[in-house]
From TrEMBL:
The keyword Transcription regulation applies. GO terms for molecular function: DNA-binding transcription factor activity; transcription cis-regulatory region binding. It comes from Salinarimonas ramus. Pfam families: TetR_C_11 (PF16859), TetR_N (PF00440). Keywords: DNA-binding, Transcription, Transcription regulation. This is TetR family transcriptional regulator. Coiled coil: none annotated. PANTHER family: HTH-TYPE TRANSCRIPTIONAL REGULATOR RUTR (PTHR30055), TETR-FAMILY TRANSCRIPTIONAL REGULATOR (PTHR30055:SF148).
Length: 204
């Protein structure tokens, strides 16, 4: 019995071991976004991020090799993904659903402060340009799905300029919320959806 107990003790993880915990990682993500929104990416301090999360700086460097790597993984984990848009039966209904879902994402106060800074950093840094491009692709994926459905229904032609269409779908809402800093009402979003739908049909 004593020998068995001794074996179990040997198998225990030492109390001082650095074991990454999911809850600490999430706390670091949240602290990073708060720091980014408050200071701007160029002024992000990893020491302050660690302090916000109640951790030591070593907790960051055990997980990420650089501030850019930290930003990329944080955005991937907790960033700007939108849920898949279900088939609402028509192009305009799908566009309306897309814009309402995007409005939810863009209403978050951290998102509204981080996105403009991310675009500015992308103009200066190839690493941040790559991150900006990945975020844009995530936002465009649901739009690509609704265009495919519209083509299958016969509402749009297969020859549609998809890249231009994907630029058009979020443009008025993104401009209003991120560039101008205003939040449109549900009635205004519905009106935007009608205008975007008309534009998509005009592209055809």
């Amino acid at each position: 019995m004593e020998r068995k107990c001794s074996d179990q003790k040997k198998k225990r993880t030492p109390s001082g071991a650095a074991v990454p915990r999911a809850e600490l990682t999430d706390a670091l993500y949240q602290a990073f976004f708060a720091e980014w929104a408050e200071k701007g990416f160029a002024a992000v301090s990893l020491e302050r991020v660690a302090a916000r999360a109640g951790a030591g700086k070593a907790a960051i460097y055990r997980r990420w090799s650089s501030r850019s790597a930290f930003a990329a993984e944080a955005v991937e984990a907790l960033g700007l993904r939108m849920a898949v848009i279900e088939d609402r039966g028509s192009l305009e209904a799908d566009v309306t659903d897309f814009l309402f879902r995007l409005r939810v994402v863009l209403r978050h106060p951290l998102v509204r402060r981080i996105l403009p800074d991310l675009h500015a950093e992308a103009a200066r840094s190839p690493e941040m340009r790559g991150l900006n491009t990945r975020i844009a692709s995530q936002r465009r994926a649901p739009g690509a799905g609704l265009l495919e459905r519209a083509v299958a229904r016969g509402e749009l032609p297969a020859s549609l300029d998809t890249k231009l269409a994907l630029d058009l779908i979020p443009a008025p809402l993104y401009w209003r919320m991120v560039v101008l800093g205003a939040t449109p009402s549900r009635a205004e979003v519905t009106k935007m959806a009608s205008a975007v739908t008309a534009g998509l049909r005009a592209l055809a």
